[in-house]
Amino acid sequence: MQFFIYRLLFVSVVFPKGVRSQVQTHQTVMAALGEEAHLNCLLTEPKEVLQVMWHKILPDFEDKNVGTYNKFGQRVDPDFRDKVKFKVTELQNSSIVISSVTEHDEGCYLCLFITYPEGAFKGRTCLQVCELHEPILHVRGSNSSEESLVSCSVTARPAPTVTLTVTQQHLYFSHYSTVTVTNANNTLTVTKTAVLSGLHGDGTQVGCAVRVPSGPQKEVFMNITEVKPKSADGFDKESENSNKRGRWILLVVVALGWSIIVVSLVTTTQSTTEDTNNKDTTYINRTPSKEDTNSSKVQEELQYLHLQ
Ligand SMILES: *[C@@H]1O[C@H](CO)[C@@H](O)[C@H](O)[C@H]1NC(C)=O
Ligand SMILES: *[C@@H]1O[C@H](CO)[C@@H](O)[C@H](O)[C@H]1NC(C)=O
Ligand SMILES: *[C@@H]1O[C@H](CO)[C@@H](O)[C@H](O)[C@H]1NC(C)=O
Ligand SMILES: *[C@@H]1O[C@H](CO)[C@@H](O)[C@H](O)[C@H]1NC(C)=O
Protein backbone atom coordinates (compact mmCIF):
# COMPACT_ATOMS: atom_id res chain seq x y z
CA MET A 1 0.00 0.00 0.00
CA GLN A 2 1.45 3.30 -0.99
CA PHE A 3 0.29 6.57 0.37
CA PHE A 4 1.05 10.05 -0.73
CA ILE A 5 3.87 12.11 0.66
CA TYR A 6 3.13 13.64 3.99
CA ARG A 7 1.85 17.12 3.81
CA LEU A 8 0.60 19.49 6.45
CA LEU A 9 -2.03 21.97 5.56
CA PHE A 10 -2.62 25.09 7.46
CA VAL A 11 -6.22 25.67 6.65
CA SER A 12 -6.46 28.80 8.68
CA VAL A 13 -4.81 30.44 11.60
CA VAL A 14 -7.16 31.11 14.45
CA PHE A 15 -7.11 33.88 16.93
CA PRO A 16 -9.85 32.94 19.37
CA LYS A 17 -11.95 35.93 20.34
CA GLY A 18 -11.97 37.47 23.78
CA VAL A 19 -9.41 37.70 26.52
CA ARG A 20 -7.69 34.43 25.72
CA SER A 21 -6.79 35.39 22.15
CA GLN A 22 -3.07 35.12 22.66
CA VAL A 23 -2.59 31.55 21.42
CA GLN A 24 -1.97 31.17 17.74
CA THR A 25 -2.57 27.76 16.20
CA HIS A 26 -4.10 26.05 13.18
CA GLN A 27 -7.76 25.29 13.22
CA THR A 28 -7.33 22.13 11.15
CA VAL A 29 -4.26 20.11 10.38
CA MET A 30 -4.54 17.58 7.62
CA ALA A 31 -2.26 14.55 7.65
CA ALA A 32 -2.08 11.52 5.43
CA LEU A 33 -2.81 8.11 6.85
CA GLY A 34 0.40 6.51 8.12
CA GLU A 35 2.37 9.75 8.07
CA GLU A 36 3.12 12.13 10.90
CA ALA A 37 1.17 15.20 11.98
CA HIS A 38 2.64 18.31 13.55
CA LEU A 39 0.51 20.38 15.90
CA ASN A 40 1.85 23.81 16.83
CA CYS A 41 0.85 26.46 19.33
CA LEU A 42 2.35 29.83 19.96
CA LEU A 43 1.70 32.18 22.83
CA THR A 44 1.97 35.52 21.08
CA GLU A 45 2.34 37.79 24.12
CA PRO A 46 5.15 37.45 26.61
CA LYS A 47 3.83 35.85 29.80
CA GLU A 48 5.32 34.11 32.77
CA VAL A 49 4.61 30.52 31.72
CA LEU A 50 5.01 27.90 34.41
CA GLN A 51 3.94 24.90 32.42
CA VAL A 52 2.69 23.86 28.99
CA MET A 53 0.13 21.05 28.62
CA TRP A 54 -1.45 19.25 25.71
CA HIS A 55 -4.86 17.59 26.00
CA LYS A 56 -6.93 15.56 23.61
CA ILE A 57 -10.61 16.47 23.59
CA LEU A 58 -12.68 13.32 23.94
CA PRO A 59 -16.40 13.29 23.23
CA ASP A 60 -18.49 12.68 26.37
CA PHE A 61 -15.38 12.39 28.52
CA GLU A 62 -13.02 14.66 30.29
CA ASP A 63 -10.16 15.81 28.14
CA LYS A 64 -7.29 13.36 28.21
CA ASN A 65 -3.83 14.50 29.18
CA VAL A 66 -1.34 13.93 26.37
CA GLY A 67 1.80 15.49 27.79
CA THR A 68 3.23 18.26 29.93
CA TYR A 69 6.49 20.15 30.27
CA ASN A 70 8.02 22.98 32.22
CA LYS A 71 11.53 24.30 32.54
CA PHE A 72 12.51 21.26 34.62
CA GLY A 73 11.48 18.54 32.23
CA GLN A 74 8.78 16.88 30.17
CA ARG A 75 6.42 13.98 30.47
CA VAL A 76 4.25 12.23 27.88
CA ASP A 77 1.25 10.29 29.18
CA PRO A 78 1.82 6.48 28.94
CA ASP A 79 -1.23 6.15 26.65
CA PHE A 80 0.48 8.40 24.11
CA ARG A 81 4.08 7.37 24.58
CA ASP A 82 4.36 5.45 21.30
CA LYS A 83 2.32 8.01 19.48
CA VAL A 84 3.27 11.52 20.53
CA LYS A 85 6.58 13.30 20.93
CA PHE A 86 7.35 16.87 21.84
CA LYS A 87 9.09 18.68 19.03
CA VAL A 88 9.31 22.22 20.41
CA THR A 89 9.31 22.62 24.19
CA GLU A 90 9.68 26.33 24.67
CA LEU A 91 7.55 28.10 27.22
CA GLN A 92 5.91 30.36 24.61
CA ASN A 93 6.19 28.04 21.63
CA SER A 94 5.10 24.41 21.69
CA SER A 95 4.64 21.66 19.17
CA ILE A 96 3.95 17.94 19.22
CA VAL A 97 4.39 15.28 16.56
CA ILE A 98 1.86 12.48 16.20
CA SER A 99 3.45 9.56 14.35
CA SER A 100 1.84 7.18 11.84
CA VAL A 101 -1.59 8.71 12.14
CA THR A 102 -4.73 6.60 11.88
CA GLU A 103 -8.34 7.62 12.11
CA HIS A 104 -8.11 7.02 15.90
CA ASP A 105 -5.81 10.02 16.16
CA GLU A 106 -8.38 12.26 14.57
CA GLY A 107 -10.00 14.86 16.75
CA CYS A 108 -9.20 18.10 18.45
CA TYR A 109 -6.27 18.84 20.70
CA LEU A 110 -5.79 21.62 23.22
CA CYS A 111 -2.56 23.33 24.09
CA LEU A 112 -2.55 25.13 27.44
CA PHE A 113 -0.02 27.69 28.52
CA ILE A 114 -0.33 27.84 32.30
CA THR A 115 0.75 31.30 33.37
CA TYR A 116 1.12 33.15 36.60
CA PRO A 117 -0.95 34.97 37.70
CA GLU A 118 -3.40 34.95 34.77
CA GLY A 119 -4.00 31.22 34.52
CA ALA A 120 -4.32 29.12 31.36
CA PHE A 121 -4.23 30.36 27.78
CA LYS A 122 -5.71 27.79 25.43
CA GLY A 123 -5.36 26.96 21.79
CA ARG A 124 -7.42 24.39 19.95
CA THR A 125 -6.25 22.55 16.87
CA CYS A 126 -7.99 19.66 15.11
CA LEU A 127 -6.35 16.80 13.27
CA GLN A 128 -7.98 15.36 10.19
CA VAL A 129 -6.54 12.18 8.72
CA CYS A 130 -6.99 11.67 5.05
CA GLU A 131 -6.32 8.71 2.82
CA LEU A 132 -5.55 8.90 -0.86
CA HIS A 133 -4.56 5.86 -2.88
CA GLU A 134 -2.98 5.83 -6.32
CA PRO A 135 -5.48 6.66 -9.05
CA ILE A 136 -6.01 4.02 -11.72
CA LEU A 137 -6.40 5.30 -15.26
CA HIS A 138 -7.94 3.26 -18.09
CA VAL A 139 -8.24 4.18 -21.76
CA ARG A 140 -10.07 2.10 -24.30
CA GLY A 141 -11.33 2.61 -27.81
CA SER A 142 -14.97 3.28 -28.44
CA ASN A 143 -16.96 2.69 -31.65
CA SER A 144 -15.36 5.52 -33.48
CA SER A 145 -11.64 5.74 -34.14
CA GLU A 146 -11.80 9.38 -33.14
CA GLU A 147 -13.11 8.63 -29.69
CA SER A 148 -11.78 6.91 -26.62
CA LEU A 149 -13.35 6.03 -23.32
CA VAL A 150 -11.24 7.29 -20.45
CA SER A 151 -11.92 6.31 -16.88
CA CYS A 152 -10.14 7.05 -13.65
CA SER A 153 -10.76 5.42 -10.31
CA VAL A 154 -9.46 6.31 -6.87
CA THR A 155 -10.08 5.32 -3.27
CA ALA A 156 -9.84 8.10 -0.71
CA ARG A 157 -11.18 9.65 2.46
CA PRO A 158 -12.73 12.23 2.69
CA ALA A 159 -14.49 12.32 -0.69
CA PRO A 160 -11.91 13.00 -3.43
CA THR A 161 -12.30 15.08 -6.55
CA VAL A 162 -11.26 13.43 -9.82
CA THR A 163 -10.19 15.53 -12.81
CA LEU A 164 -9.45 14.14 -16.24
CA THR A 165 -6.97 16.09 -18.34
CA VAL A 166 -5.64 15.95 -21.88
CA THR A 167 -2.60 17.74 -23.26
CA GLN A 168 -3.79 18.72 -26.75
CA GLN A 169 -6.20 21.62 -26.97
CA HIS A 170 -8.29 20.27 -29.84
CA LEU A 171 -9.15 17.15 -27.86
CA TYR A 172 -12.05 17.35 -25.48
CA PHE A 173 -13.98 15.29 -22.97
CA SER A 174 -17.73 14.83 -22.97
CA HIS A 175 -20.38 12.50 -21.55
CA TYR A 176 -18.95 12.60 -18.06
CA SER A 177 -20.27 10.14 -15.54
CA THR A 178 -19.23 9.56 -11.96
CA VAL A 179 -19.87 6.54 -9.78
CA THR A 180 -19.16 6.67 -6.04
CA VAL A 181 -18.97 3.58 -3.85
CA THR A 182 -18.69 3.78 -0.06
CA ASN A 183 -16.37 1.12 1.34
CA ALA A 184 -16.69 -0.62 4.69
CA ASN A 185 -13.83 1.42 6.21
CA ASN A 186 -15.50 4.75 5.32
CA THR A 187 -13.30 5.38 2.31
CA LEU A 188 -14.92 6.21 -0.99
CA THR A 189 -14.07 4.79 -4.37
CA VAL A 190 -14.88 7.33 -7.06
CA THR A 191 -14.77 6.39 -10.74
CA LYS A 192 -15.08 9.10 -13.36
CA THR A 193 -15.61 8.18 -16.99
CA ALA A 194 -15.70 10.40 -20.06
CA VAL A 195 -15.49 10.17 -23.83
CA LEU A 196 -12.38 11.72 -25.31
CA SER A 197 -13.11 13.13 -28.78
CA GLY A 198 -11.08 14.67 -31.56
CA LEU A 199 -8.40 12.01 -31.96
CA HIS A 200 -7.21 11.93 -35.55
CA GLY A 201 -4.60 9.27 -35.33
CA ASP A 202 -2.22 11.46 -33.39
CA GLY A 203 -1.01 10.42 -30.00
CA THR A 204 -1.76 12.32 -26.84
CA GLN A 205 -1.33 12.17 -23.12
CA VAL A 206 -4.28 11.86 -20.82
CA GLY A 207 -4.02 12.48 -17.13
CA CYS A 208 -6.02 11.99 -13.98
CA ALA A 209 -5.60 14.29 -11.01
CA VAL A 210 -7.16 13.31 -7.70
CA ARG A 211 -7.26 15.21 -4.45
CA VAL A 212 -9.07 15.33 -1.16
CA PRO A 213 -10.52 18.71 -0.19
CA SER A 214 -7.84 21.05 1.17
CA GLY A 215 -5.56 18.04 1.10
CA PRO A 216 -2.86 16.53 -1.02
CA GLN A 217 -3.14 15.59 -4.65
CA LYS A 218 -1.92 12.78 -6.88
CA GLU A 219 -1.72 12.56 -10.61
CA VAL A 220 -1.15 9.80 -13.16
CA PHE A 221 -0.60 10.07 -16.90
CA MET A 222 -0.95 7.71 -19.80
CA ASN A 223 0.26 8.13 -23.37
CA ILE A 224 -2.23 7.00 -25.94
CA THR A 225 -1.77 6.57 -29.64
CA GLU A 226 -4.58 6.29 -32.14
CA VAL A 227 -7.22 4.12 -30.55
CA LYS A 228 -9.16 2.07 -33.03
CA PRO A 229 -12.24 0.08 -32.21
CA LYS A 230 -11.39 -3.42 -31.05
CA SER A 231 -13.15 -5.12 -33.99
CA ALA A 232 -10.94 -3.41 -36.59
CA ASP A 233 -8.31 -5.48 -38.35
CA GLY A 234 -4.77 -5.10 -37.13
CA PHE A 235 -5.75 -3.35 -33.91
CA ASP A 236 -2.37 -4.39 -32.72
CA LYS A 237 0.23 -6.98 -33.60
CA GLU A 238 -0.94 -9.47 -31.06
CA SER A 239 -4.55 -9.59 -32.19
CA GLU A 240 -3.35 -9.70 -35.78
CA ASN A 241 -1.33 -12.75 -34.96
CA SER A 242 -4.18 -14.38 -33.13
CA ASN A 243 -6.43 -13.55 -36.11
CA LYS A 244 -4.00 -15.40 -38.37
CA ARG A 245 -3.86 -18.30 -35.96
CA GLY A 246 -7.65 -18.37 -35.84
CA ARG A 247 -7.80 -18.55 -39.63
CA TRP A 248 -5.44 -21.50 -39.74
CA ILE A 249 -7.52 -23.33 -37.16
CA LEU A 250 -10.68 -22.64 -39.16
CA LEU A 251 -9.02 -23.88 -42.35
CA VAL A 252 -8.04 -27.12 -40.62
CA VAL A 253 -11.55 -27.52 -39.22
CA VAL A 254 -13.10 -26.91 -42.63
CA ALA A 255 -10.70 -29.31 -44.29
CA LEU A 256 -11.60 -31.93 -41.69
CA GLY A 257 -15.29 -31.21 -42.30
CA TRP A 258 -14.85 -31.73 -46.01
CA SER A 259 -13.04 -35.02 -45.55
CA ILE A 260 -15.81 -36.26 -43.23
CA ILE A 261 -18.38 -35.34 -45.87
CA VAL A 262 -16.39 -37.07 -48.55
CA VAL A 263 -16.08 -40.18 -46.37
CA SER A 264 -19.78 -40.12 -45.50
CA LEU A 265 -20.62 -39.59 -49.17
CA VAL A 266 -18.66 -42.63 -50.08
CA THR A 267 -20.31 -44.65 -47.30
CA THR A 268 -23.80 -43.47 -48.14
CA THR A 269 -23.23 -44.18 -51.82
CA GLN A 270 -22.18 -47.64 -50.81
CA SER A 271 -25.16 -48.06 -48.50
CA THR A 272 -27.59 -46.65 -51.06
CA THR A 273 -26.23 -49.06 -53.59
CA GLU A 274 -27.03 -51.80 -51.12
CA ASP A 275 -30.38 -50.14 -50.38
CA THR A 276 -31.45 -49.98 -54.01
CA ASN A 277 -31.17 -53.67 -54.06
CA ASN A 278 -33.69 -54.07 -51.23
CA LYS A 279 -35.83 -50.94 -50.99
CA ASP A 280 -37.62 -48.29 -53.04
CA THR A 281 -35.94 -45.21 -54.55
CA THR A 282 -37.34 -42.63 -52.13
CA TYR A 283 -34.50 -43.24 -49.77
CA ILE A 284 -31.97 -42.61 -52.49
CA ASN A 285 -33.53 -39.24 -53.17
CA ARG A 286 -33.41 -38.33 -49.53
CA THR A 287 -29.72 -38.99 -49.10
CA PRO A 288 -28.40 -36.32 -51.51
CA SER A 289 -30.63 -33.68 -49.92
CA LYS A 290 -28.98 -34.48 -46.61
CA GLU A 291 -25.61 -33.95 -48.22
CA ASP A 292 -26.78 -30.63 -49.58
CA THR A 293 -27.57 -29.34 -46.14
CA ASN A 294 -24.15 -30.43 -44.97
CA SER A 295 -22.34 -28.72 -47.78
CA SER A 296 -24.35 -25.53 -47.39
CA LYS A 297 -23.30 -25.50 -43.77
CA VAL A 298 -19.72 -25.73 -44.97
CA GLN A 299 -20.42 -22.87 -47.36
CA GLU A 300 -21.67 -20.83 -44.44
CA GLU A 301 -18.58 -21.70 -42.47
CA LEU A 302 -16.40 -20.62 -45.37
CA GLN A 303 -18.23 -17.33 -45.63
CA TYR A 304 -17.78 -16.82 -41.92
CA LEU A 305 -14.12 -17.52 -42.42
CA HIS A 306 -13.85 -14.82 -45.07
CA LEU A 307 -15.62 -12.38 -42.83
CA GLN A 308 -13.20 -12.94 -39.99
C1 LIG B 1 8.75 28.08 17.41
O1 LIG B 1 9.78 27.10 17.47
C2 LIG B 1 10.14 26.54 16.23
C3 LIG B 1 11.19 25.49 16.49
O2 LIG B 1 12.20 25.93 17.31
C4 LIG B 1 10.63 27.62 15.28
O3 LIG B 1 10.90 27.06 14.02
C5 LIG B 1 9.56 28.68 15.15
O4 LIG B 1 10.03 29.72 14.33
C6 LIG B 1 9.18 29.21 16.50
N1 LIG B 1 8.11 30.18 16.32
C7 LIG B 1 8.18 31.40 16.85
C8 LIG B 1 7.06 32.31 16.45
O5 LIG B 1 9.06 31.75 17.57
C1 LIG C 1 -21.14 1.11 -29.89
O1 LIG C 1 -21.76 0.17 -30.74
C2 LIG C 1 -22.66 -0.69 -30.07
C3 LIG C 1 -23.16 -1.73 -31.07
O2 LIG C 1 -23.10 -1.25 -32.39
C4 LIG C 1 -23.79 0.14 -29.47
O3 LIG C 1 -24.68 -0.71 -28.78
C5 LIG C 1 -23.21 1.15 -28.52
O4 LIG C 1 -24.22 1.97 -28.01
C6 LIG C 1 -22.15 1.99 -29.21
N1 LIG C 1 -21.50 2.82 -28.22
C7 LIG C 1 -21.26 4.12 -28.44
C8 LIG C 1 -20.55 4.83 -27.35
O5 LIG C 1 -21.58 4.70 -29.47
C1 LIG D 1 -10.27 0.88 2.89
O1 LIG D 1 -10.96 0.14 1.91
C2 LIG D 1 -10.44 0.29 0.58
C3 LIG D 1 -11.34 -0.49 -0.36
O2 LIG D 1 -11.71 -1.71 0.18
C4 LIG D 1 -9.00 -0.19 0.54
O3 LIG D 1 -8.49 -0.01 -0.75
C5 LIG D 1 -8.18 0.60 1.55
O4 LIG D 1 -6.87 0.12 1.58
C6 LIG D 1 -8.79 0.52 2.93
N1 LIG D 1 -8.06 1.40 3.82
C7 LIG D 1 -7.53 0.99 4.96
C8 LIG D 1 -6.85 2.01 5.78
O5 LIG D 1 -7.58 -0.17 5.31
C1 LIG E 1 4.67 10.10 -22.70
O1 LIG E 1 5.25 10.89 -23.74
C2 LIG E 1 6.07 11.93 -23.25
C3 LIG E 1 6.50 12.78 -24.43
O2 LIG E 1 6.39 12.10 -25.63
C4 LIG E 1 7.25 11.31 -22.51
O3 LIG E 1 8.11 12.33 -22.02
C5 LIG E 1 6.74 10.49 -21.36
O4 LIG E 1 7.81 9.83 -20.70
C6 LIG E 1 5.73 9.46 -21.84
N1 LIG E 1 5.13 8.83 -20.68
C7 LIG E 1 4.90 7.53 -20.62
C8 LIG E 1 4.24 7.05 -19.38
O5 LIG E 1 5.16 6.76 -21.53
From TrEMBL:
Positions of transmembrane segments: 248-267
Membrane disposition: Single-pass membrane protein
Annotated GO MF terms: cell-cell adhesion mediator activity
SUPFAM superfamilies to which the protein is assigned, alphabetical: Immunoglobulin
Superkingdom of the source species: Eukaryota
PROSITE patterns for this protein: IG_LIKE
InterPro entries: Ig-like_dom, Ig-like_dom_sf, Ig-like_fold, Ig_sub, Ig_V-set, OX2G-like
CC terms in the record's Gene Ontology section: axon; cell surface; membrane; neuronal cell body
Cleaved signal peptide residues: 1-21
UniProt keyword annotations, A-Z: Disulfide bond, Glycoprotein, Immunoglobulin domain, Membrane, Signal, Transmembrane, Transmembrane helix
Any GO BP: negative regulation of neuroinflammatory response
Region annotation (Disordered) ranges: 271-299
Residues of the Ig-like domain: 16-111
Subcellular location: Membrane
Compositional bias (Basic and acidic residues): 288-299
UniProt protein name: OX-2 membrane glycoprotein-like isoform X3
Natural source organism: Betta splendens (Siamese fighting fish)
Name of the coding gene: LOC114845095
